[in-house]
Amino acid sequence: xxxxxxxxxxxxxxxxxxxxxxxxxxxxxxxxxxxxxxxxxxxxxxxxxxxxxxxxxxxxxxxxxxxxxxxxxxxxxxxxxxxxxxxxxxxxxxxxxxxxxxxxxxxxxxxxxxxxxxxxxxxxxxxxxxxxxxxxxxxxxxxxxxxxxxxxxxxxxxxxxxxxxxxxxxxxxxxxxxxxxxxxxxxxxxxxxxxxxxxxxxxxxxxxxxxxxxxxxxxxxxxxxxxxxxxxxxxxxxxxxxxxxxxxxxxxxxxxxxxxxxxxxxxxxxxxxxxxxxxxxxxxxxxxxxxxxxxxxxxxxxxxxxxxxxxxxxxxxxxxxxxxxxxxxxxxxxxxxxxxxxxxxxxxxxxxxxxxxxxxxxxxxxxxxxxxxxxxxxxxxxxxxxxxxxxxxxxxxxxxxxxxxxxxxxxxxxxxxxxxxxxxxxxxxx
Length: 430
Fold this sequence. Notes:
Blueprint: H1 9-20, E1 26-31, E2 37-39, E3 42-43, H2 50-56, E4 63-67, E5 78-82, H3 87-92, H4 99-106, E6 110-113, H5 117-125, E7 130-133, H6 148-159, E8 164-167, H7 169-177, H8 181-202, H9 211-223, E9 235-238, E10 259-263, E11 267-268, E12 271-272, E13 276-280, H10 287-305, H11 313-330, H12 336-340, E14 380-383, E15 386-389, E16 394-397, E17 400-403, E18 411-412, H13 421-428
Parallel strand pairs: 1-7, 5-6, 7-8
Antiparallel strand pairs: 1-4, 2-3, 4-5, 9-10, 10-13, 11-12, 14-17, 15-16, 17-18
Helix pairs in contact: 1-2, 8-9, 10-11
Organism: Flagellimonas abyssi
Domain Aminopeptidase P N-terminal: 6-142
Catalytic activity: Release of any N-terminal amino acid, including proline, that is linked to proline, even from a dipeptide or tripeptide
């Protein structure tokens, strides 16, 4: 791993929170992700299952975490199973977790080789009434591939049909949404790396550069600061490309007069940051570009103030819609008749701002976290309004990551990343 080892106390706390929600005489099992093939002998880079990582810190394939708070033998209340390593594996693939290192990383005293799982699991299931399955129930999930977790659930239902089943996901939605101080520190590190990349790019961009060249500059800066790279597929959209919300080609030449929408950010230790900035290719905003940009920035700043404990996510988005409607009228993009005659299910402002304003962020860019209950302190949300005007060849989006505070306005993890028009122009024209 490129990142510095995380204090295992974080994972100890996370497991305690999870186990406090478990039923009596129940077991919860969490499987690592597979390594996915490309073809021939090629594979995609490994990415750990975020729930397993959240609860153990173990960041390698072929790993299982078992939690059984009521186990008769106290050493079996937390167990980590890892792939047995040897000298051959160390030479060809690099060192894997030893039992001692697995304990150091996770804070779990009982570590077995993965080959022992079936035998130990059978023994423990004779003591248990319920097993928690870890299903992906994120509101945006659309996974078609069968995962290691899916295969385990299928096998378990066949072999233990008399046991009750329960879901880990509601517990994880509850506890992962509220971040521990150590998690916020890791996310701040990701945001700081993102800042380094953005400042680097401000001195690089000019008419004639290519979108993919900017992608390379960001990646260089991210990796040299111990990030694996982008937290999500980077969007580098010049000119009208900015009006494609998930533009990923990044293969066009930047033209004089273009604005460039940059929706990209670094990860650090599997924690995401999520930034969007929109900059002028030639280092100077036109008057119209300034107008639109300033409207988006005002909406972002006012929306941020609403992210306080007790706010309901759906109601918050309605209020942001009102702010955006006012700005669009001021820009001459909507008039009062448009608003009076709007479809309540698709308000008039949606013509120019068609996506949501905020989502949880953490170990996933679109992170787990409750959305139908009031917001709580130490939840971390993005704030990302935008205005998209294909007829004018521009799209503007601005995005920061903020931590809800017990009192007062949220704390902006991206407070040091330039966003004001004057600062961006000054840095681009040094």
